[in-house]
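Tokenise the fold.
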Amino acid sequence: MFGLALKSLRHRAGGFVASFLAMFLGATMVMAFGSMFDTASGDVPAASRETLVTMASVVGGWGLLLVVFAVVSTLTLSVRQRAGEMALLKSVGATPAQIGRLIVGETALLALAAGALAIVPAVLGGAALLEMLKSSGQVDESVGFSFGAISVPMGLGITFVASTVAALITVRRATRVRVTEAVADAAAGSSKMSKKRIVGAVLFTLLGLDLAVVTATVMRGSGSDAMSTAGQACIYASIGMALLGPVMIRLVVRLVAVPLELFGGAAGHLAVSNLRQRTGQLASALTPIVLFTAIGTGTLYMQSTENAAMAAAGLAKTADQKGIETLNFVVIGMIVLFTAIMLINTLVAATTYRRREFGQQRLAGATPKQVLGMVAVEGAVLTGTGVVLGTFASLFTILPYASNRLDSATPDGTPLIYAGVVVLAAALTMVTVYGAARRAIRTRAVEAVAA
């Protein structure tokens, strides 16, 4: 089966790019922060060891959660795009177990390759992180960088296990549906939400709510230590909101369908039709927008609120508080980079796959301008939906932390913070979708349909 999986990877290399990059970036991130464990295991001062372990545990833990979700999202998109292939395999006698082993085998090989290639950039990233901690005075200058004993097994193991588990989760529906249903999915993409997805959405949202309540009550009076619960609240909530993607897209389409069809012309009509039929596929592209908006907004306003609380108390920042601030900005930088690449990856994969669809539309009479207009409208709907969901999820961090530190219902911070996050999310989405669509329609319509 691994031999067949290897042949499949060679034949469809382009179809695995998004999943491979998610694994590669995830392994790089986990190993880079994991190297702080390696460094802390040497002969280092107690204060420096505590900082290194905290950095590795907190950021590495959040990174792991994001990586698992990213791999599930990209694999889900990949398997949806292969619905026709799955149907063909079933029609010639392949069993669900054989198809499942094929996909899991492909994913396992990808994970091993991604983990191995991530070692060099992880070394560079870990060394840069240690230098940053030294320059900010959080780690003693005498501490030497160490990499390997803990970080490599940790990165390879986590990437492999997370990816294969994600593959097992993803292939369940693909291997259980009948051939006729698989063909229908290949043509239009299912919009139904599974019971497990609904349960997951409720569970993660409740976890976020629980941490929000703990931040506002149990952690009151604990100072900046409340960040440990407040920061995680919007992460869990954003995952819950992202899992509700298909439902939210359908709801938004109902609200905007009439004005789009009335005033959007042919592009608006095509966009509404595609949004209704392909909510499952579009939901995968929605995920990174939600994560980016929620975690970026929540963490930045949380740090701004902490700065205001310190100023109101007339206190100067201690070394520990500077460390917390640095940690928060490292998290933001990590999330911005990871989710931005994940966003670009997912949207490029989803849009490029639609080359045949674009060709059919052009043969049916749509002009290239109308096709691009349709894609732009879809991107705007995705952006708006993702920003709204992400903004709601960020409140799970912002409001409880403001109540805890400022005894206020509103956080401290300029509206420009939120505006910056939203503008960046919109720019990444629209530029990526439009650019990928322009490349996709360069292929002649007849050739695209025949491919």
About this structure: Residues 191-451 form one domain. The CA atoms of residues 259 and 333 lie 38 Å apart.
